Amino acid sequence: MSVRVVLALALLVGSVRAQSQLASERDVRLLVSLSIDQMVPEQLDRLAPWLTGGLGRMLREGREFTCAELRYGETETGPGHACIGTALLPARHGIVANDWIALDASRSTYCFDDPDARAVTNAGVGSSRASSPRNFRSEGFAEHLRAASPRSRVVAISAKDRSAIGMSGRRADLALWWDKRSGGYITSSWYASELPPWLRDWNASWLEQLAQGEFGRGWRSQLPEHFDGSRTAPDEREGERGRPGERAFPHRVPRFDGALDKDQLALAASWVYDGPAGDVLSSELARLAQRELGLGERGALDLLCLSLSSCDTVGHGYGPDSVEVTDVLLRADRQLGALFAQLDERVGPGRWFASLTADHGVMELPETLAARGLDAGRWSTKLLRDALEAVRPRVAARFGADFYLAYHSRGVRLSLAGMREAGVAPSDVRAHYVEELLAAGASWIEHAVSCDELESVARRGAAPRTHLIALEAASFDEERTCDIVVLWRRNYLFGTAAGSSHGTPHDYDRAIPLLFYGPGVAPGRSAEPASSIDVLPTLLSLAGLPVPPSLDGRVLDVAR
Predict the structure, then answer these.
(1) Rounded to an integer, what distance in angstroms lies between the CA atom of residue 137 and that of residue 370?
(2) Residue 355 in contact with residue 553, Cβ under 8 Å?
């Protein structure tokens, strides 16, 4: 080991000890893990002069890691939040995508589906199926925190179930998410048999709050008058979702007042999930939960996880630089400012730490990229379907059958049982599929990779042929990864007729913000390599708690 490496390790150990000493001296009582779904670092950069609330506070007084990125290939919400909440890569925690096609299955499975869990609403435990952390293959934030601090409380809140569950782990006291069908926040029977009274009361008033609040007369832009230099795109652009003439502010909203029938209620609830109100209500509920549960006020170290989803749900329709997403982020800044002010008042300045990151990045609208002279566009999933129609007969001619079961935009599932029954080597069939798909899709496929190759990289330490394949291997799971993983060329969207999306190992989908704030955190920017898997170990270290040695993430130096 070189002298330089020894010195670097010594400095890191000294920094970790200093962080732990600072935590014990200041009697830290609350950790706050924040995620803004689909946020990219450029949004913080371009909006910094106008961020005066919580985001601005973290930028000015916290530590920002400017080179943060995801280190795996399936850049979706489920795995993204699971990485934040476990400090492990998907190849270890098992949540490899929002949905996957399991071994010998022809239908997909939702990442946090649980056939035994039931939705818990204001009416109690219902009959409808609900989500839970059952599919985790690892421990998460709640388990690690309780191992060192058994009296800790862990609460997670988001519009999305996969965000709240993924950030908190298997043993959260309560994970809450928005009911897209009827409105209000719900949980599952994994966590509780009934909602607490304070939440039932809040759920009973959400429609009234919206009717009387800022969205009562529509969704109107709250961008400041003097906004030159913000690099926000024009209010209506080619490629945005919706009909021409309806893509600009103000946007209409559903009816929130009066006697709503079932369909009107469902429309209002779905608008909350898909629009800016999701963040407003989630933030308000986080403040209520902190007060009602005394998070950070009980003489024990508690954890509050909050994921704001509107940047993603709105961003899918309008793109990351749109007026709509900019409006969402300025609202998030104000909401987080109100949360931080409450924590200062109730928990105490210097007694709480916060982290902020994202679950994934996003691609700019391909029409905008093309206007800049880049090779960009949209492709239909028909490309993959047509390629498979050409490939399957060739595979069948060689092996006697093609063993095809299903496909989605990122892969193809074959029948393992069928290949074994036919007496053919599955690896040979998969290799032939890869060869034929690359030939059939030469104009649009970046790579096609068999699960055998990914397994050799992920489990046996084989050298990956490319960096993109190394990232795909970090998302590998023996039962949940397709037989053939397919990636299309960069700057193209697959199966998205309007708006934008993510999900690939391309750099724009992996770019994320990462900031830490709290006592002893040195303000400024760091170019140190970092990722969302570093959130959990860094927060544990800041709280003066032991960091499990088996994590993929590491403790970042935030004290200098």
Answers:
(1) 42
(2) no
Confidence check: pLDDT of 9 > 80 = no
- In single-letter form, the type of residue at position 208 comes to E
Position of tokens 């782990």?
A: 169
Residues 6+ apart with CB under 8 A from 56: 48, 333, 337
Work out the mean pLDDT of the chain and round it to a whole number.
Answer: 94
Residue type, 184: G
* CB crowding 404-427: b at 16 or more within 10 Å, else e: bbebbbbbbbbbeebbeeeebebe
DSSP string over 239-263: T-SS-TTSSSSSBP----SS---HH
Distance separating alpha carbons of residues 206 and 186, to the nearest angstrom:
13
How many whole angstroms separate alpha carbon 370 and alpha carbon 355? 35
Tokens of 212: 């009387």
In contact, 103 and 416? CB cutoff 8 Å: yes
Distance CA 430, CA 440 (A): 15
Q: Is the dihedral of CA 268, 271, 276, 281 positive or negative?
A: positive
Burial class (CB in 10 A: 0-12, 13-18, 19+), 12: middle
Degrees (nearest 5) of the Cα angle 403, 480, 534? 150
Q: SS3 for 357?
A: strand
Distance between alpha carbon 108 and the CA centroid of its chain, in Å? 19
The pLDDT assigned to 240 comes to: 97
At residue 1 the predicted structure's pLDDT band, cuts being 50, 70 and 90, is very low
Element (H, E) at 379: strand 377-379
In order of 372, 447, 468, the CA distances from 375 in angstroms are 9, 18, 19
**Mean pLDDT within 107-112:** 97
Cα–Cα distance measured from residue 431 to residue 453, given in angstroms and rounded to the nearest whole number: 9
- CA dist 351 and 28 (Å) reads 4
Delineate the domains of the chain, giving CATH numbers in brackets: 32-368+508-542 (3.40.720.10), 377-490 (3.30.1360.150)
Angle, helices 310-318 vs 262-274, to 10°: value is: 90
| C-alpha span between 421 and 378 (Å, rounded) | 40
pTM higher than 0.85 for the full model?
yes
Closest CA to 167 of 533, 443, 538, 556: 533
**CB-CB contact of 240 with 365 (8 Å):** yes
- 412: which strand partners? 407, 484
DSSP-derived secondary structure letter, 192: -
Per-residue pLDDT at 7: 35
Smallest CA-to-CA distance from 189 within 93, 90, 118 is with: 118
Residue 26: band (very low, low, confident or very high) from pLDDT cuts 50, 70, 90: low
